[in-house]
Amino acid sequence: MSFEPTDAEVQSFHDHGYLVLPCRFGADDVRRMRDEADRILELCINSSLANQRKSGRLNIIQRPGGPQVVRRIQPIIDLSLPLHQFSHDPRLLDPLRHLLGGEVALMEEKITYKEPLPTPVQGLPCEEDMDDRFVVHSDWAYYKDQGYPKGLISTAVCLDDCTEASGPLRVWPGSHLVHREHERTPFGRQVLPHLLDLHGGEDVLAPAGSMILWHAMLVHSSRPNVSGRPRRLMIYSHYLADAGLGFDARNGPLRLAESPWEWRYQRLKDAGAFQDVFHAPQFPEG
């Protein structure tokens, strides 16, 4: 079975720089991905506590007077066989092969959680930040430093409904046609304010199981998640394999740096010297 996009979808992607493919993954697949997201969250936080150092994979903030919020865990597929298998799924790869015009290679992968923790995790270092927003930027502003091509595409599988309250992906349609210079801010690289209306953009709303694809040069952001629930996106980024950029150049060093600490955590558990104290919060459906 082919999962190639229609001609209209291809044209929409080229015109606007992004594409929404609703409900490509069914409820069982989404449930498996959510379970893996919970397991990875537990591993990264408990490993951090056992080793008395925050995992380099884990991006977590403390909101002043509010909850701790997990923003992102990256990289992840070396921690999860199911999420590794999903990275080879034709539902994911067929649209990319068609849009990029050839075989594709995985550049990086991550889960953006935007997940509030109802109970604080004591002893876990967190940077203080006002909220879990992502500033107005294009991915290529980062990727160009490693020599990746402009035509790179990221694909987000929605593990939760993306609603106005959940801080969904926000895009500037057509902005992928011209690269805009960025400035460094405390919150990451951001498009220079005089080059774009930073308060513009359009929210991308989609139900769980949908896929959102966007061009590496598309300007995007997200507002804070005020829903009280996680807004998890399983994101895979690909480029044409014949670019010859090697394997796992972007995330490989971090995997190697964190693996010894994760194995130490497992050995401490096996020896009875550490017991897991964090369990992923469960949120009601709907």
Order of helices and strands: HEHEEHHEEEHEEEEEEEEH
**Which CATH architecture would you pick?**
Sandwich
| Strand line-up across the major sheet | 1-12-7-14-4-3-2-5
Share of residues in helices: 25-40%
Indicate the low-confidence ranges by residue numbers: none
CATH top level class name: Mainly Beta
Give me the count of strands: 14
Our measurement of the CA-to-CA distance between the termini, rounded to an integer number of angstroms, reads 31 Å
CATH superfamily: q2cbj1_9rhob like domain
By secondary-structure content and strand pairing, the structural class works out as: alpha+beta
Into how many domains do the coordinates divide?
A: 1
Please state roughly what percent of the residues sit in beta strands, choosing from under 5%, 5-15%, 15-25%, 25-35%, 35-45% or over 45%.
15-25%
Summarize the structure.
The protein is an alpha+beta fold. It is built from six helices and 14 strands. The chain has one domain: q2cbj1_9rhob like domain (Jelly Rolls).
Report what the structure shows:
With 286 residues, the protein is of the alpha+beta class. The protein has one domain (7-240, 248-269): q2cbj1_9rhob like domain (Jelly Rolls). The chain has six helices and 14 strands. The strands form three sheets. The protein has an eight-stranded mixed beta sheet. A four-stranded antiparallel beta sheet has the order 6-13-8-11, with no helix packed on it. The protein has a two-stranded antiparallel ribbon with strand order 9-10. α2 crosses α6. The two termini are 31 Å apart. The model has no long low-confidence stretch (mean pLDDT 95).
